[in-house]
């Protein structure tokens, strides 16, 4: 039986003009995960990743830490939803930069509301696919992996939205639970599915074993 390792990208640049860029901490997180896997002798037969910069930068850091790489399958279906478009769909007026704890919480409360409306089909954010198409893109990648890579170790690097959607599909969760899973995914967290030709099964969710040391616990981030 193979294992699919789903990794959320390292810390990006939340609150900056260009979010789609790993921070210095995010780059270090990615390298650390690769080092952790190298220490345990883990190898991947194939790698899947979204095409966003933070996905590719995270993968580069993991490979640096592992000292090895595998064949890459880039899939736009693993790209994140556009959170700014979602927010504009329910709050057209500009929002202040979320640079305080109160504004940070307000930002994510609005985002959860927008996600629920998008998933329910009541809003159509500009430039975004509908929820069925977004979810279908994730499902297509999972089906490809299930059929083509049973019995192998596969790495998948993506974002909180696609990963929580994948977990929700495997577990059959409601939209509300899928959103809750999304909001809890931490940077560089690892979730695992077992792979066989009939199904994918969830084994772990949102783990950070590679940061569970006195040196690295302060590296844990969420945004």
UniProtKB/TrEMBL annotation:
<dbReference type="InterPro" id="IPR029033">
    <property type="entry name" value="His_PPase_superfam"/>
</dbReference>
<protein>
    <submittedName>
        <fullName>Histidine phosphatase family protein</fullName>
    </submittedName>
</protein>
<dbReference type="InterPro" id="IPR013078">
    <property type="entry name" value="His_Pase_superF_clade-1"/>
</dbReference>
<dbReference type="Pfam" id="PF00300">
    <property type="entry name" value="His_Phos_1"/>
</dbReference>
<keyword id="KW-0378">Hydrolase</keyword>
<dbReference type="InterPro" id="IPR051021">
    <property type="entry name" value="Mito_Ser/Thr_phosphatase"/>
</dbReference>
């Amino acid at each position: 039986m193979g294992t699919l390792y789903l990794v959320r990208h390292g810390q990006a640049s939340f609150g900056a003009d260009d979010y789609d860029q790993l921070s210095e901490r995010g780059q270090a997180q990615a390298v650390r995960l690769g080092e952790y896997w190298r220490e345990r002798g883990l190898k991947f037969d194939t790698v899947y990743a979204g095409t966003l910069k933070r996905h590719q930068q995270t993968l580069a850091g993991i490979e640096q830490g592992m000292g090895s790489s595998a064949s890459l399958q880039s899939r736009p279906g693993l790209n994140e939803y556009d959170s700014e478009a979602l927010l504009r769909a329910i709050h057209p007026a500009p929002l202040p930069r979320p640079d305080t704890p109160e504004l940070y919480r307000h930002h994510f409360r609005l985002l959860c509301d927008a996600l629920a409306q998008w998933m329910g089909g009541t809003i159509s954010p500009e430039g975004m696919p509908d929820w069925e198409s977004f979810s279908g893109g994730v499902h297509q990648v999972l089906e490809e992996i299930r059929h083509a890579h049973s019995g192998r170790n596969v790495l998948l690097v993506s974002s909180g939205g696609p990963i929580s959607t994948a977990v929700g599909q495997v577990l059959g969760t409601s939209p509300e639970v899928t959103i809750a899973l999304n909001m809890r995914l931490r940077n560089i967290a690892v979730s695992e599915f077992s792979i066989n030709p009939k199904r994918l099964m969830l084994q772990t969710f949102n783990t950070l074993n590679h940061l569970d040391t006195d040196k690295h616990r302060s590296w844990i981030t969420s945004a």
